[in-house]
UniProtKB/TrEMBL annotation:
Gene name as annotated: fruA_1
Species of origin: Koleobacter methoxysyntrophicus
GO process annotations (BP): phosphoenolpyruvate-dependent sugar phosphotransferase system
Phylogenetic placement of the source organism: Bacteria, Bacillati, Bacillota, Clostridia, Koleobacterales
Name under which the protein is recorded: PTS system fructose-specific EIIB'BC component
Chief subcellular location: membrane
Keyword Transport: yes
Amino acid sequence: MIKLVAVTSCPTGIAHTYMAAEALTKAAAEKGIEIKVETQGSIGVEKELTPEDIREAQAVIIAADANVKTDRFVGKPVVITSVGEAIKNPVKLIEEALNKKEILKVDKAKTVSRDDIINMIQEDKALKNAQRTGPYKHLMTGVSHMIPFVVAGGLIIAISFIFGIEAFKQEGTLAAALMTIGGGSAFALMVPILAGYISYSIADRPGLAPGMIGGILAANIGAGFLGGIIAGFIAGYFTQWLKEIIKLPRAFEGLKPILILPFASTLVVGLLMIYVIGKPATALMNGLSIWLKGMSDINAVILGVVLGLMMAFDMGGPVNKAAYTFAVGLLGSNIFEPQAAVMAAGMTPPLGLALATLMAPKIYTREEREAGKAAWVLGISFITEGAIPFAAADPFRVIPSIMTGSAVAGALSMLFGVTLRAPHGGIFVLFIPNAVGNLLMYIVAIGAGTLVTALMINALKASAWSSVLSKERLITK
């Protein structure tokens, strides 16, 4: 039997990773092909591919929006794509992998041939151009590594508020200890981890130290997550540039990744952050903070609408992640309203579609009604990807409907001044005292967005359904 292997990995490692794995597995089974899919999700690597798996495989599929190492697949035909493509077109990917003749070449970085190195760089550039997701993929690699720190820190901070919103100020109490763990430690690492893994994604291990140190500097000078992102990209691209231009005798080559690159890159990035980039980035961050804290109701509603539209537009894709990253980054600056709007807007797409299948089951297929049941769970868990099965089947009706509902939820959340101190958790964080400010109106905002989504999609589908019935009657006559 023909055998394939695959790796799936999305930035957050929560839903897309496993949806892509399931889609590939199902498509392979229908074609009578054996496939083993390794998932690199938020809980780590599962179903890890063994050397024997890879050796027996005819080809490899890498469906990832985060950084995945390809060294172990040298000598095999490798198809690299996004997790979204694997979810939408698994059969096409499998056929592409089976038909691909070109194999992945040996890592030229380990050889001394200049021609090979040039070829490798050209191949890398061609690959990145083809994917058109280079900076986005680097950013998402940083975000995916940052999220566990944000989630752990945010939830522990939220627990500290159970004892009172100001209880942590009293030294020696459990609330103070929880705040030290969540705010003083986990959140303190948030920006350095973001910057470090952006740089790591670009330049591999030599980029990690300059990226993280640049991130610490960004945090210390008040440049926040914007400064961290800038530091990460500078560190990564500068380190990568040094890797390419520095040529050493073979006997000293080992000094480059452990001494020369980290030292030179850290020095340059550090000085740039302190003397050149730090002040403008800090001013930008301060200006953003002041604007967000002093927004009028109209501006708040507009921001809520924009964040809502972004959260629903691609359901876990780049636009969705940009809105989420923006809101999560502001948590470190004690700005909590955008996070509330983002989570509300991210919950309503699957919740609205689930409600729609209950309100008008006749206009949905049996598969859609089953997907609706799962969407309830995904929606309350703040997993926007639960709307994807519906959007894939009927994008022109579903996507406008969920964007409208999310815009309503985001706008109302901002209008009501709702605050959310936890970066994730869905409905479950609502039960943590003081984690959500203005809880009652937050529930109203989520409910309104859910209802608008359901009513709009049912109205659009009912119209199409009536049109089909009319044609059938004409044919019968």
